[in-house]
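Mods, move this if it's the wrong board.
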Amino acid sequence: MDFAALTSLVIFLPLLGALALLALPSPESIKWTALGTTVLTFVASIGLFMGYDPAVSTAEMPQMAHVVGGWFPEGVDVKYFVGIDGLNILLVLLTTLLGPIVVLSSWFYIEHSHKGYYALLLLLQTGVTGVFMAFDLVLFYVFFELTLIPMYFIIGIWGGEDRIYAAIKFVLYTLVGSLLMLAGVLFLGYAAGSAQGIGFTTDWYNLIDYTIPLGTQTWLFFVFALAFAIKVPLFPLHTWLPDAHVQAPTGGSVILAGVLLKMGTYGLLRFCLPFFPNAAQSAAVLIAVLAVIGIIYGALLARVQPDAKKLVAYSSVSHLGFVVLGIFAFTTEAMQGAVIQMINHGISTGALFLLVGMLYERRHTRLMSDYGGLASSVPVLTTFMILSVLASAGLPGLNGFVGEFMILLGSFKSTVLDSPMLIALATSGVILAAVYLLHMVYNTFFGELTHTENAEMTDMTMREFVLMAPLAILMLVMGFYPQPFLNQTAPTTDFLLETIEAKHIAAIEAEHEATASAPAVPSADTEAAPAPLFETTPAALRLHAGSSPTR
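Not the wrong board. Structure tokens:
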């Protein structure tokens, strides 16, 4: 099998499906074509998963890479470069899995403009998958911006009463950050290309070979991290998210929570840490503090929400704070926990949005006070809701526990953060999550059955059962036996940490050499050996000595 071509097929098959929808006449044919396209894309992504071998090094080239160059004149190294490694394989699978689930969830909910809605869903899937698989920074930026267009229209056309306000706020927040990132991309491309005699390069492997001066790292880290922090969203840049979630249709909320927010955390891991390791280390405590504030603040706001969908929206602010904390702990356990928690959050929170959407389709209200006692009238839906809530709350044995436990364990061991009190505060977010999620379950599904509409509510249909079953199975499988998933990510996260360590040392030594060569008497500090970022591994020492694993 040509796995190189398969990577591009997974990216662009939804785009081909979107173009095919434009020629179809009836809503039924449009929906079935959209469903068939997303199912085929998921099957193709399983082929990538089966073909990916975590034991094979991706230090010089990602596995199943597809590279097409020659688009620009000589001296401009910008190309179509996509591939699979341990950081993106599970995210790609999650994206393609949610594709058919979102189509099924929209089957009866979307009542007009079917062609535009499903075409935009497929275009959005192409953009998100491209973001996760791009190994050229310009290509990454193109896919990153591409996701704005379909999401804007999905919220603005098929959303709630305040959909225009929410859609514009979503675009403005994201666009400001990404335009600043574009300036950073151009500067970094010219700096790295000039240093390597290429001219201009945005190849990820060329960029991690380039040692950026310490002063330049600071502002470059800021513009990249700002773009990704908005997308996460990290406190205090989170205010666009509740509006977007509440106003978006159910399918839009599932994609937003499931994979769009992960573009921010993925960007921090893929670009900010290996490109700017010294600046990332310097900012680690500040970002960790903001992450912990987001964990607690998001949980407290979720607790007081009367709207079930807004409660789940604020839970995303809280849960993704754990992911950011794990990324900036700079330990193997925390980083692996962050990667696996991205997947876990997409599964459990996506399920919660689907279930809240099912309730809304039946009663056309999201206020928890309008429900109560549903456990007796919709027992199957109640069972799925309880499972999803417990998974989101981090109950041992379910998927949410694995990622949060590894993040907290790795953060306690972190010599970069070195703040057990801060991590203890983060741990309180687990308790608060149980409080607001169980509060939602009790008020919605238990208590006295006082409304006639609730007593007459129909339970889950076969369509709804089919779209929820894969998510429920994954909650159980990843909770009881997470090792196969962790095995996929371990080699790449180890390589990433080794690269960060080596570049951290190299940047400090380059600064010392520049200072020593200046017409001044070197100080004692100049001659001192740079302190390691964390425990140096043999691979990092090889990289530092000049035997780079990247090229």
